[in-house]
Design goal:
There is one protein chain. 46% of the residues are buried. The longest helix has 17 residues. The protein is an alpha/beta fold and 500 residues long. The chain is built from 14 helices and 28 strands. Helix 9 crosses helix 10.
């Protein structure tokens, strides 16, 4: 028998409700069917001699098969770990170097993929393997047990996975459900892959709330920006996710691309995963108001795989933002509001109940509006990486998670300014990538374009060189825009730039 505060107990409750999951392009299923099939996979694992705590890697797209394998591994006492199904344009199974990296980091006992794999050195299964298999006997679990592993999304280095406990996850979902006002009448549209922190959380949070789940392929949205909004309208979805790049892409294609969509059912579009541009949020809400989107529907969020959710704005409210002089903040390490400020920073909202947030500057507790590293501990914060004590010791210290993000607190709200590592060193001066991107956002032709500023080693100059990638849709007067970019960089951050 599972304790009440475990994911398997939540699945039992959802199965009793028999609510439906609709993944577009897949046959609809109910949570009762997911549970039944997951016990078949648990039986398959147990019959094969799967030991307790074994890692089961799941390279499956979002949908019923992933959830069956996820809960089946958990019921067998193993630890499921979702990974990306594709690396670039090729399936993950076509990348032997990536498979070896997973092998070295996690020593998987078994691997699950959508298609059969010829790999004599590893144990592979496809979803067809559990069809018709006798049900296994679920291994009892408790709140303090590790439920699954969450793959970090950071770039570079060896793969790492956070150990995520049952009780921590259930408590986090409860707080998210309360803040987002999810009910059994809600309809959550999810499209983010399950190996991302917010992707799996969306479906499991909806399961815990008794809400309907509608799944959409990530590829469909990447190739057709309005697809997400058409699906929101068609399925009368109340909750979903819109990262900043997609919000800006919607602004680029313009209001005409959305026809007569009715978004009046939407209550919350969570915004996170990258820097939030308050000006783009205001412009997006104004554009989508024509389609019935209510004010305050964009809800900024802040979290990571190491902490399911740290801070989240409540739907239906206005969300403040600070205008700050970037040069002044860099010099004083304080975020003092200035109506003429060239840096626009969004308030994420208050930390979730049970989560503590502090800002540390040079080893001491920072004051209000003082810039420093964001640290968190509490109900939704993990405690360790699997099998990696060195990485754990570097990330968690004295019970606090060191996020590696710069930010500040003001009036009880968290403001996130960017990554501590996003600093570009040019000729003995430090420039924030966020400041450079903010300066370029003043150029009208690229104001809503996704962009990224990075520093690249320049052996000839003996310093870093600035490189900025800008994604633009549609025609533009390139020479004039280049001159405007050069002027913005020179006038706001004192950099001379030449086009590549």
């Amino acid at each position: 028998m599972h304790a009440a505060d475990t994911l398997l107990a939540l699945l039992d409750t959802a199965a009793a409700r028999n609510a439906e999951l609709i993944y577009l392009g897949q046959a609809p299923v109910t949570w009762a069917e997911v549970r039944q099939r997951s016990l078949a996979f648990a039986g398959l694992l147990q019959a094969a001699g799967c030991p307790a705590g074994a890692r089961i890697l799941l390279g499956l797209p979002p949908g019923a098969d992933f959830l069956v394998a996820f809960f089946g591994a958990m019921a067998a006492g193993a630890l499921p770990l979702g990974v990306a199904t594709h690396i670039g344009q090729r399936p993950w199974t076509d990348h032997p170097e990536q498979l070896q990296a997973y092998e070295d980091a996690f020593a998987p006992w078994a691997w699950v993929a959508t298609a059969a794999v010829t790999d004599p050195g590893r144990r592979w299964w496809t979803p067809a393997a559990w069809v018709g298999h006798p049900a296994g006997t679920p291994v009892p679990c408790h709140a303090g047990d590790v439920a699954f592993l969450g793959l970090t999304s950071g770039t570079g280095g060896e793969p790492k996975a956070v150990m995520i406990e049952h009780g921590l996850t259930v408590r986090s979902y409860g707080r998210l459900i309360e803040r987002l006002q999810l009910t059994p009448a809600s309809r959550l549209l999810t499209w983010i892959p399950y190996h991302h922190a917010s992707g799996l959380t969306a479906s499991l949070m909806a399961m815990a709330a008794g809400a309907a789940v509608i799944g959409l392929s990530p590829a469909a949205i990447m190739s057709d920006v309005p697809a997400l909004f058409r699906a929101l309208a068609e399925h009368r979805a109340t909750h979903s996710f819109v990262p900043s790049f997609l919000l800006k892409a919607a602004l680029q294609v313009g209001a005409g691309a959305f026809g007569t969509l009715d978004l009046s059912a939407v209550r919350s579009l969570q915004l996170g995963g990258e820097r939030i541009d308050p000006a783009a949020v205001v412009a997006f809400e104004a554009m989508m108001a024509l389609h019935g989107l209510a004010p305050g529907s964009i809800t900024p969020a802040y979290g990571m795989i190491e902490a399911t959710a740290i801070a989240l704005a409540a739907p239906g409210r206005s969300h403040p933002a600070d205008r700050i002089m970037a040069a002044g903040m860099a010099e004083t390490r304080r975020a003092e509001p200035d109506p003429a400020g060239d840096l626009y920073v969004a308030a994420i909202g208050a930390p979730l109940d049970g989560v503590e947030v502090r800002i540390m500057a040079d080893g001491r507790l920072a004051g209000d509006r003082e810039l420093g590293e964001i640290e968190a501990r509490g109900a939704s914060v993990g405690r360790a990486y699997w099998g990696n004590p060195a990485a754990t010791a570097a990330r968690w210290q004295d019970g606090w998670l060191h996020t590696g993000d710069l930010g500040y607190l003001a009036d009880g709200r968290l403001y996130v300014c960017g990554r501590m590592t996003d600093v570009i060193n040019i000729a003995a001066r430090k420039y924030s990538a966020e400041d450079i991107e903010s300066a370029l956002a003043k150029v009208p032709e690229i104001a809503t374009a996704p962009m990224a500023a990075v520093g690249l080693p320049d052996a000839g100059l003996g310093t870093e060189a600035l490189a900025v990638g800008i994604g633009v849709v549609g025609p533009m007067a390139q020479d004039a825009v280049v001159r405007a970019i050069q002027q913005a960089l020179r006038g706001r951050v004192g950099l001379l730039a030449a086009p590549l």
